[in-house]
Amino acid sequence: xxxxPPPTPRxxxxxxxxxxxxxxxxLLAPSAAAQPAPAQPTxxxxxxGADWLYAGSDIPRDTAWQFxxxxxxxxxxxxxxxxxxxxxxxxxxxxxxxxxETDAQRGFAHxxxxxxxxxxEHIPDGETKRIWQRFGVTFGSDSxxxxxxxxxxxxxxxxxxxxxxxxxxMKLLAGMVREPRISEAAVAAERGVVLAELRESDGPxxxxxxxxxxxxxxxxxxxxxxxxGTTASLAAARAGAVQAFHDRWYRPDRAVIVIxxxxxxxxxxxxxxxxxxxxRSDGPAPTPPDFGKPDPKAPVAKAIVEANQPLALxxxxxRPWKKxxxxxxxxxxxxxxxxxxxxxxxxxxxxxxxxxxxxxxxxEQQYVSRSADVTMAQIVxxxxxxxxxxxxxxxIADAVTTPPSxxxxxxxxxxxxxxxxxxxxxxxxxxxxxxxxxxxRAVDIGETxxxxxxxxxMFKAIRASATPQAMLAISKAIFSAPVTRVVLTTPTxxxxxxxxxxxxxxAPPKIQGDRLSAANVDFKxxxxxxxxxxxxxxxxxxxxxxxxxxxxxxxxxxxxxNQVEPGKVRVKIRFGTGNRSVAADxxxxxxxxxxxxxxxxxxxxGQNEIDQLTNxxxxxxxxxxxxxxxxxxxxxxxxxxxxxxxxxxxxLAMPRWDAAPVxxxxxxxxxxxxxxxxxxxxxxxxxxxGWLTDDDARWSAPDKAAIxxxxxxxxxxxxxxxxxxxxxxxxxxxxxSTVDYRQILADTLGALPPRTLLxxxxxxxVAFAKHNRTPMIAYHKGEQGQAAAMTAWPxxxxxxxPRDAHGLxxxxxxxxxxxxxxxxxxxxxxxxxxxxxxxxxxxxxxxGYLVVGSLLAPKDVGRFYGIASDIAADLVVHPVGADELARxxxxxxxxxxxxxxxxxxxxxxxxxxxxxxRVAAAALSIxxxxxxxxxxxxxxxxxxYLVPAHQWSVxxxxxxxxxxxxxxxxxxxxxxxx
Length: 978
Known about the structure:
Blueprint (H helix, E strand, L loop, with lengths): L18 H9 L38 E4 L5 E6 L7 E7 L13 H11 L8 H8 L8 E5 L4 E7 L4 H16 L5 H18 L2 H13 L14 H5 L3 H11 L5 E7 L3 H12 L24 E5 L6 E9 L7 H26 L4 E11 L3 E10 L3 H15 L6 H20 L6 H13 L7 H12 L4 H11 L4 E8 L6 H10 L28 E6 L6 E5 L4 E6 L7 E7 L17 H7 L7 H7 L8 E4 L4 E7 L4 H13 L6 H12 L8 H13 L11 H5 L3 H12 L4 E7 L6 H7 L28 E5 L6 E8 L7 H25 L7 E5 L10 E8 L4 H17 L4 H18 L3 H7 L7 H8 L1 H7 L2 H11 L6 E7 L4 H15 L1
Parallel strand pairs: 2-6, 7-11, 14-18, 19-23
Antiparallel strand pairs: 1-2, 3-5, 3-6, 4-5, 8-10, 8-11, 9-10, 12-13, 13-14, 15-17, 15-18, 16-17, 20-22, 20-23, 21-22
Helix pairs in contact: 1-6, 2-5, 3-27, 4-9, 10-11, 10-12, 10-14, 10-15, 12-14, 17-20, 19-24, 25-26, 25-27, 25-31, 26-31, 27-30
């Protein structure tokens, strides 16, 4: 049964993980299983194929889905779903991916995906995108596709559905899949785009990923069938060969159509029959390739030397993949396997928190691409890779030697059960797009789907079988294998090379039995925050279903009691002044708060105690730094709201200052520091915000010296006064019908002592980068064929003119659309050019910019600046046409309409509304503002802001290259082309 496990609480570490660890994680796509052969009914009837997903399974059927098979073998699954209202999500899955390619066809499945999205034989090239834009579809998010080793999936989320645009969209999509335009011209254009995608992904991370994949899956197709293909195979691709690949694998009996949305499932099924029913196969069905099995004779160890890459280890226990029918017993095994992993991950995380030999280590067991059953340990050593490997192997050895306690098992089972109950509570609000994606994933991995209630019921029965002895048996199964392989990524060669890895792996593991001991923790141990606060005023917010509640201590709450998400309550506490609390030119520790501030504890409890305190409950705490406030946020439920608020208020009233998280953060930043200039994209990710704000310290990344100098004392000295400063605004949105939220507020935030405002530094304006005629040059240490170019213009900011802010969003969308057409669709010079408008509300009259950029080959940098300048100049001189405006404003308006049905949207827009009435007014006017933008407005904004004399540009080039060198490359390429 398809199951999405709860997320782990370690997302902060992903920004520090070295390439090999990330690459290894990316390898493990959701498991895939061979699909059952389709039945061959004689009529189009949902009843005839109603059980094709559940063939041979005893999993309780999710009756919300209706299934069917067309006479030609096309299978489908359709359902009604009204989230968001008016949207229909369509997925077309073809059972073909990169492992279906021959050596000469590497990359063809992915190239074909690109060609398919250009249009069909019946639609002019590129016109499909424009038609869908007119329907309100955003390219890249609402319409997209993906190719994996085992499947190719086409995705369309159609907003504001009408019978006409749904019919037209089904017609377009069916035509694209059945008869894509595969001409030599189209192949040449998309070859350039795919080669740009390949170039942009090239570098140490891709090399490590490819080498790791080849080593782990030696002798199997997965080992050398990356979906992107190779430069040689793509260069050799011709229309006839790609057409032959399409004709071989794009057949009705290999297609699954999934539709979930705001409509009648019977109508969805009728449209599927209308546009796919007459699809016929050419010739007999091809025999799928043998994906191979793990080769026990292949080398065990591989050391990958990559300069500037931190140490990283991947330990993989690899078993042959077995096809299984998805049954209740199979589901029991999957859940117990996940529990066994969770038990080990808890112990590994505890060792890392306590200052062990590794920064982070996790284990994960997956069924990979119908090729292997793999348990993989991913380890980031602190310094000594041998010690880190030994420690992780020791924890695993303990798991397969000594049964876990029932208390340990219950702790992890509580987390899974809480997640499933949360999904059940939120089932009414599950977006149709996610339901469609889940169905596609279930088909790909050969599993069924169950209703949220069915999943809760099954797990309750399954967890009863999770005894210590049962978990020991499961652990032995997933941590043993006929093939074990290890990969070490290292910046310098290690003494002994691969032999040293083999020796380390051959050493008997020393059992690490220091399991997490249960602590006797209870919310009653938390000291009272203070005397319950007094409400001094309440008032409705005009135009909104919300009220403003003010307490005597100055805390002001914005509360919305609604049933948008039954059983869910969202909380956001905004305090202090965020980025405004520090000066533009003063050193700061804003960058340390995201992880260390939350992990450093509360009152009598450290992070381990808090984890135990909140086990199995919907209580959490996230932290972020905004322009005008610091934010604590959480997603909870009515029964947990009182304790949720108590914990968050205690973080402000009685913070704890454990040193270990600060040190872990420091080491993590230093571990990943050399990745900051490994690629053009890494250079931009780290530096662009600082450059755009004229090196403002609030948005400039810390250098190595600042990171090295971080101490627990300095961390506390920076954050302690900020946690204690006012003002406080709290938002509580959700299902509050069963709770006394006023009393909860009075007992928590309302009980805090009055808070003084931290004296704001002078200069609360944000500068923009100084104009340059010649682009600023920055360098990366990656591949010589990689570069990036950005150009930007200052705009404005604040709440004074929200209509212009939305007009600039549309201007950026138009700019992006034109840049896409010229740089990608016409010239194949870029995979994903981007234009974006940033209009912050935290600094009145400043901080805004419109930025345009792309990853490129060095030879195309000058071309990018020329195209960007041409587009900007044209937008200044000529008003846009009505169709172009509608195609770009419509998707933005649709995104707003969809988002406005949820609490997240309104909570974001209403930040600061308790103190500034302009916030609510701006929130309520968005739809009207977007709809009122005219071609004259777009031209006026272009004339006001796209001023060459204010423009700033940067080019990211390979180390040692100049703009003149890049121009010479362009000239040479042009001459070669002639």
